[in-house]
Specification:
The protein is α/β, with parallel strands linked by helices. The chain folds into two domains: about 240 residues, Alkaline Phosphatase, subunit A (3-Layer(aba) Sandwich); about 140 residues, Alpha-Beta Plaits (2-Layer Sandwich). Helices cover about 30% and strands about 20% of the residues. A hairpin with a 2-residue loop joins strand 5 and strand 6. The protein is globular. The structure holds zinc ion (ZN).
Length: about 400
């Protein structure tokens, strides 16, 4: 478990101050189209973001460290001011959060793959021929009935061959090995207790697997399971504890709602439309000090390698900016969690444009919001984890350090 650590900025946060809105366009950063030399963000018509960039200060942030391509989980932890390496959220935990599962502190979660094994128990297909999501749900309901001594067990379908297993009870441990051997022609591995204290969790998981194998025997494709990313939801100091901020999240996708919940944010109802994001912000503006707002489509279009689609998504994002900027008068920070260049069709390590608008911000020479123009911004190129202190400072929430 993580102890509450005392360090900057935590030890100088004040009891009150202005309000902060962190608006995240997932995967915002891109790479230039070789034909035009312009990225998706630079190609998109973004008059509202450009106007904000003129008024505020801009720059770029490195999500984790130079050259490191992050997942969205650690990239968001960095935006929230948590060292993403120290506070690494396990893959099992993220998978459970991704289906809106009510994961509690001390729960242990694992990603599950249904797999196909031959008569000798050797894996012939690590993804069970990508069974349908309906089949996955049917088999998951059966495995959910398995009972283990002294713990509650939840088995939930995710998609196709993927599912989640959660154990709830005292004395469980995370950080156990994967049972997926990452190859075919061999048997799934056992869960091993490679450290003292992990024996019981390993025993429970191995018992689960052998019972599951019994239930799945005779299935034509999904006749076995493998476990990956076995992880515990650990206690993390909350926004309230670290920053004296009552925080809320406005996000449609479960994983982001889940990560926000991990750091103690209240998760507001799912916005039905993009416009509803600003409506929710307005409705709850008095109740909270900090708002995390998440826009997904700049990432999903980038992941699909769809340059034009990402340009269109960026323009949609620009469309919601005025409604939010009107409300977020104290501090508004707009950025992405990482880059997702359409040219790579994946996340990447490239720095991400940032703009910060506040009554206390300086002006700079950045006249539009883009990867290249932000290089001329006053924020320079900084680490993602350093954005939170900047937001706090601009909101008047950090006292002087030392005399
Ligand atoms: Zn992301």
């Amino acid at each position: 478990m993580h102890e509450k650590t005392t360090r900057l900025p935590d030890e100088i946060v004040t009891a009150s101050g202005g309000k902060i809105v962190l608006l995240v366009a997932d995967g915002l950063g891109g790479l230039p189209d070789p034909k035009t030399g312009l990225t998706e963000l630079e190609t998109a018509k973004t008059p509202n973001l450009d106007a904000l960039a003129k008024k505020g200060v801009s720059g770029l942030h490195v999500p984790i460290a130079p050259g490191i391509t992050p997942g969205s989980g650690p990239a968001h932890m960095a935006l929230f001011g948590y060292d993403p390496v120290e506070y690494l959220i396990g893959r099992g935990v993220l998978e459970a959060l991704g289906i809106d599962f009510d994961l509690r502190q001390g729960d242990v979660a694992a990603r599950i793959n249904f797999a196909t094994v031959d008569g000798d128990g050797r894996i012939t297909d690590r993804r069970a021929g990508r069974i349908s999501t309906e089949k996955c749900a049917e088999l998951s309901a059966k495995l959910d009935t398995i009972e283990l001594p002294g713990v509650e067990l939840f088995f939930r379908p995710v998609k196709e061959h993927r599912a989640v297993l959660v154990l709830r009870g005292d004395g469980l441990e995370g950080g156990l090995n994967d049972t997926d051997p990452q190859t075919t022609g061999v048997r799934p591995l056992e869960v091993r207790a490679d450290q003292a204290g992990k024996e019981r969790t390993a025993e429970l998981l191995n018992s689960f697997v052998s019972q599951a194998d019994g239930i799945l025997e005779g299935e034509p494709k999904a006749n076995a399971i493998t476990l990956r990313g076995i992880a515990m939801r650990e206690a993390i100091p909350t926004f309230e504890e670290r920053y004296n901020l009552r925080a809320a999240a406005i996000a449609a996708y479960p994983m982001y709602r889940g990560v926000a919940g991990l750091v103690g944010m209240d998760v507001l109802p799912v916005p039905g439309t993009l416009e509803e994001m600003a409506t929710l912000l307005r409705e709850h503006y008095e109740e909270y000090d900090f708002f995390f707002m998440h826009f997904k489509y700049t990432d999903s279009t980038g992941e699909n390698g769809d340059f034009a689609g990402k340009v269109a998504a960026t323009e949609d994002f620009d469309g919601i900016v005025p409604g939010i900027a009107d409300i977020a008068e104290d501090v508004l920070l707009v950025t992405g969690d990482h880059s997702t260049p359409s040219l790579l069709a994946s996340h990447s390590w490239h720095p991400v444009p940032v703009l910060l608008k506040s009554r206390n911000s300086r002006r700079d020479l950045c006249e539009s919001f883009g990867e290249t123009s932000c290089l001329g911004g006053a924020l320079g190129v900084i680490r993602g984890v350093d954005l939170m202190p900047l937001m706090l400072a601009h909101a008047g929430r950090l006292a002087k350090f030392g005399a």
